[in-house]
Amino acid sequence: MIDNLAQGVQAFTSNVFLIDGERTVLIDAGANFDVVDAVRSRVDGLDALVLTHTHRDHVGNLEAVKERFDVDVWGCDPSIDGVDHEIDDGETVLLGDHEYVALHTPGHKDDHLCFYSEEAGVLFAGDLVFQNGSFGRTDLPEGDRETLVESIDRVLEHVDEDLTELHTGHGPSVMTNPADHVELAARMARQA
């Protein structure tokens, strides 16, 4: 089960996905709302907090989650404060009941990761791509449009028409033809 705990929150935050199953995981911690209470209302505990990247809106609640659930934080760069363990590019991680491959996808931020499960047909895209061909900002520190395009292309090498769910760092998840939204983002990022 995948549940966006930030859905309906009226604050500057990222989406926060709770994946319940064999390994109960939170993808991103969000910011500016009580994510701890939201988690506690759905599950008894967490096994890990996994980050797509470390922009403030994705990690503002990181310390509260670590303290309340006594979990380690996994991300791309353990030299960043709050990240306990490194997830290597191409590494397989268990999220819920499915194995996901971690894809290093810089361009929006150097430590950006996407997570894709071919078996589940699910992509967690962070701030790389969004609904309707939108894509991550490149005007922030570490942002680079050419690198972002390369990262989107890399994701497209993995996903195909069997992709059934696209969960993004902001906005709604895409459940209808999500691969088309990733392809459109690649085209739009090249034109912008």
TrEMBL record:
Cofactor(s) the protein needs: Zn(2+)
Every Metallo-beta-lactamase domain range: 13-170
Protein's UniProt name: Beta-lactamase
Cross-referenced SMART domains: Lactamase_B
Keyword terms: Hydrolase, Metal-binding, Zinc
Tagged with keyword Methyltransferase: no
Coiled-coil segments: none
Molecular-function GO terms, alphabetical: hydrolase activity; metal ion binding
CDD domains per UniProt: metallo-hydrolase-like_MBL-fold
Gene3D superfamilies for the chain: Ribonuclease Z/Hydroxyacylglutathione hydrolase-like
Native source species: Halobiforma nitratireducens JCM 10879
